[in-house]
């Protein structure tokens, strides 16, 4: 079994044809989350995959309380094996909005962001890690439309996007939903630039 060690965390990976293997986007989001997270806060990671980012937070931020969601059953099992409390569901569906314990200080999401036509879809569960729909923003847009119902009044969100996704379109939507927007991490990877976009409630 493959293991990744990163900033005090040790993450075991399942079959990489079933579970997304942490890559530059995962490392960038983990680093950004470490820069924002404070001891004792409540964190929700949507679409946790192997549990890599959540595991890094738990290993480095004292008293942090992390919950994750994941649609891929193989990835959810992998995250659980890495010590992450995970609900197998689509985005927020398995969390009751407005319920006690359903509000978070920080919500993280590394969405599928590749523009994907019907012919480009991958077979099986791994497609959920890549398929951003025709625009590359379909899953991210669904996330943004729902996220405020799960965020504390002074909470923050961190979402990973690619230059392929289109930062201006994402910024405009987030500002329209009442977020102050800035970029808290970026890195160049071959033909694209990856960015972590922060939304602060205002």
Write a concise keyword list for the protein shown above.
single chain; seven-stranded mixed sheet; two-stranded antiparallel sheet; 202 residues; Rossmann fold; alpha/beta
Basic shape: globular
The helix content, as a percent range, equals 25-40%
Radius of gyration: 16 Å
CATH class: Alpha Beta
Provide the succession of SSEs: EEHEHEHEEHEHEE
What structural category arises from helix and sheet content?
A: alpha/beta
Order the strands across the largest sheet as they lie in space: 5-4-3-6-7-9-8
**CATH architect. name:** 3-Layer(aba) Sandwich
Stated plainly, the CATH topology is called Rossmann fold
Task: Please summarize what this structure is.
By secondary structure, the protein is α/β, with parallel strands linked by helices.
Question: How are the secondary structure elements laid out?
Answer:
Elements: E1 3-6, E2 9-12, H1 24-36, E3 42-46, H2 52-60, E4 65-70, H3 73-81, E5 85-88, E6 104-109, H4 138-147, E7 151-162, H5 167-176, E8 179-189, E9 192-201
Parallel strand pairs: 3-4, 3-6, 4-5, 6-7
Antiparallel strand pairs: 1-2, 7-9, 8-9
């Amino acid at each position: 079994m493959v293991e990744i060690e990163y900033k005090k965390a040790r993450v075991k990976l399942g079959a990489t044809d079933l579970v997304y293997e942490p890559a530059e986007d995962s490392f960038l989001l983990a680093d950004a989350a470490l820069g924002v997270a404070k001891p004792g806060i409540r964190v929700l990671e949507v679409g946790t995959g192997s549990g890599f980012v959540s595991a890094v937070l738990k290993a480095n931020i004292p008293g942090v309380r992390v919950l994750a969601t994941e649609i891929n059953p193989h990835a959810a099992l992998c995250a659980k094996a890495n010590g992450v409390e995970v609900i197998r569901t689509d985005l927020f569906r398995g969390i009751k909005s407005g319920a006690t314990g359903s509000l978070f200080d920080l919500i993280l999401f590394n969405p599928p962001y590749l523009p994907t036509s019907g012919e480009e879809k991958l077979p099986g569960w791994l497609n959920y890690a890549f398929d951003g729909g025709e625009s590359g923003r379909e899953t991210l847009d669904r996330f943004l439309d729902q996220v405020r119902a799960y965020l504390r009044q002074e909470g923050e969100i961190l979402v990973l996007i690619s230059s392929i996704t289109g930062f201006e379109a994402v910024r405009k939507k987030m500002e329209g939903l009442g977020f102050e927007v800035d970029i808290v991490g970026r890195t160049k990877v071959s033909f694209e630039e990856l960015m972590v976009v922060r939304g602060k409630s205002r």
